């Protein structure tokens, strides 16, 4: 639906000829909108990496509400199916489906976008969550290539592939999972808790992602696409392949990160559009 309507005596139609509402005293009342007292159509979301960690807990949190249809985008179809059946076992009110894509395989991204277009016709929220903290045996250049391939380039291509579908939403939200380690300002603060954390290639890949998010925020304005970049906090997930080590470093629960993402989707962080946010505020770039 693109908001344009064609009046007849009784019904309002979108450009595709679908009935979107009724005309009462020259005013179009949108059928199914909460304003009109009808049943709102669920928001369509794509959530990358929803088989693990923050993505999994976010899918679970979203599925609790009938307001959402979550498309779980994972690189492994088997892991996606397993995660979906675990979440569905809790009889969620929302609906879920899966789609296979690997952010380093750009053809798989465009194929997924085509499938979402054919099935849903629009996208309300894209959560670019997939990421990796790699421990390549190679030198810094090799580590950078690997990190940028997943954490940066893959997310740029995701944005480009799904932007036309987001542009069709009346409330388009684009969310990037970044990190406090991406902040150049915090990198130089000796008293910051992450000062001694190394991970130069990961830091650089996420800093570049932040710049892409800022570019997407600027470009998205014309299409009504609003953008947030999120530091989920230090949480114990499969990132880096050692959950126990993360716990020993004081990592918290990814359920808390999921709530931060939910707060964006539910409009509770609309004052922080275009910023690098965390659960309690905003980081400097
Ligand atoms: N955990 C933290 O403390 C922390 C802190 C700051 C930022 N973050 C960010 O939060 C995001 C989520 O990470 P997490 O902590 O939840 O880690 P995680 O448990 O390892 O989850 C990462 C997800 O990304 C997926 N993924 C990795 N490479 C992919 C690829 N090439 N194509 C598609 N999917 C891919 C993984 O799929 P597989 O299961 O198939 O590998 C997994 O589902 C990441 O962007 C991470 O950088 C995490």
Automatic annotation (TrEMBL):
GO cellular component: cytoplasm
Record GO biological process: secondary metabolic process
Family: Belongs to the short-chain dehydrogenases/reductases (SDR) family.
GO molecular-function term, one example from the UniProt record: oxidoreductase activity
The species this protein was found in: Piloderma croceum (strain F 1598)
UniProt protein name: Uncharacterized protein
Classification via InterPro entries: Fungal_SecMetab_SDRs, NAD(P)-bd_dom_sf, SDR_fam
């Amino acid at each position: 639906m693109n908001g344009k309507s064609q009046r007849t005596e009784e019904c309002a139609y979108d450009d595709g000829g679908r009935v979107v509402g009724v005309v009462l005293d020259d005013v179009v009342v949108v059928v199914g909108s909460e304003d009109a007292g009808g049943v709102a159509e669920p928001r369509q979301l794509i959530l990358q990496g929803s088989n693990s960690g923050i993505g999994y807990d976010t899918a679970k949190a979203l599925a609790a509400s009938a307001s959402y249809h979550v498309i779980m985008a994972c690189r492994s179809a088997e892991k996606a199916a397993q995660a979906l059946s675990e979440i569905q076992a809790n009889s969620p009110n929302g609906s879920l489906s899966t789609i296979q894509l690997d952010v380093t395989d750009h053809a798989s991204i465009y194929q997924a976008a085509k499938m979402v277009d054919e099935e849903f016709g629009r996208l309300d929220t894209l959560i670019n969550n997939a990421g990796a903290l790699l421990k390549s045996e190679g030198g810094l250049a090799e580590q950078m290539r690997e990190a940028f391939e997943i954490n940066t380039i893959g997310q740029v291509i995701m944005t480009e592939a799904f932007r036309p579908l987001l542009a069709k939403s009346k409330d388009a939200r684009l969310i990037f999972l970044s990190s406090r380690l991406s902040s150049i300002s915090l990198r130089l603060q000796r008293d910051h808790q992450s000062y001694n954390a190394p991970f130069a290639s990961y830091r650089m890949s996420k800093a570049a992602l932040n710049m892409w998010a800022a570019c997407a925020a600027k470009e998205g304005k014309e299409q009504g696409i609003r953008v947030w970049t999120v530091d989920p906090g230090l949480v114990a997930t499969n990132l880096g392949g050692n959950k126990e080590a993360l716990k020993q470093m004081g990592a918290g629960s990814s359920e808390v990160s999921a709530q931060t993402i939910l707060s964006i989707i539910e409009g509770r962080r609309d004052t922080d559009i275009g910023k690098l946010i965390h659960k309690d505020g905003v980081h400097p770039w």
